[in-house]
Amino acid sequence: MFLVGLTGGIASGKSSVLQVFQQLGCALIDVDVIARHVVQPGYPAHRRIVEAFGTKVLLENGDIDRKVLGDLIFKQPDLRQLLNSITHPEIRKEMMKQTFKYFLQGRRYVILDIPLLFETKKLLKYLKHVIVVYCNRDTQLVRLMERNGLSLEDAEARIQAQLPLKDKVRMANHVLDNSGRWSDTRRQAILLHMQLEQSLEYLPLRLGMLVGLAGIASLLYLLARCLLPSP
């Protein structure tokens, strides 16, 4: 099994591409879903966020108010870094659990949906491939303003808080261009899935695990032989 990172920029269409991979039956780990899960009331990250940012980031039911928190961190890099230092370790733990589950299922590859993959750089060394969902800046601005009801100034601030898409494209193995018709983007995703599914890059880890298990079995057998009383 090998790991594939999927990333993009805000309003670039990454979530829509992820749905295509999901429809194709791919093994997916959505970091946004995990990120929402680990900050629920009762979890360590929730307590630390309240300690760091105060009760102003809470809804009446005790959940984190993502909009209030988002407005705070997008305009203040130091606060964004503080939040990342709280949530990222918990997110990585859950990602490891889900990755191991897919390995046991015999999946050839797993897609990790990581919005800030290049910004944090924490997981790059574990990825065999990196996919970037790209769209040109004008399209990105229009989509973000329409989707979130933002002014041009606020939309630009959100985009500037992330690494520019053109820089991410230069660091990617695969680029899915979502600037035009959705049917074209979908076709790109399907072709890429076929390429990854046919790859033999999953074999080294699979064979390594089999060799390791065989070695453990041999060691246990020898120990059992040594512990058995002689006839």
TrEMBL record:
Q: What is this protein called?
A: Dephospho-CoA kinase domain-containing protein
Q: Which NCBIfam families match?
A: dephospho-CoA kinase
Transmembrane spans: 203-224
Question: One GO MF term, please?
Answer: ATP binding
Biological process annotations from GO: coenzyme A biosynthetic process
Q: Which family does it belong to?
A: Belongs to the CoaE family.
Give the superkingdom in one word: Eukaryota
Task: Kindly give the InterPro entries that the UniProt entry links to this protein.
Answer: Depp_CoAkinase, P-loop_NTPase
Kinase as a keyword? Answer: yes
User: Which CDD domains does its entry note?
Assistant: DPCK
Q: Which UniProt keywords apply?
A: ATP-binding, Kinase, Membrane, Nucleotide-binding, Transferase, Transmembrane, Transmembrane helix
Question: Does the record's keyword annotation contain Nucleus?
Answer: no
Q: Which GO terms describe its cellular component?
A: cytoplasm
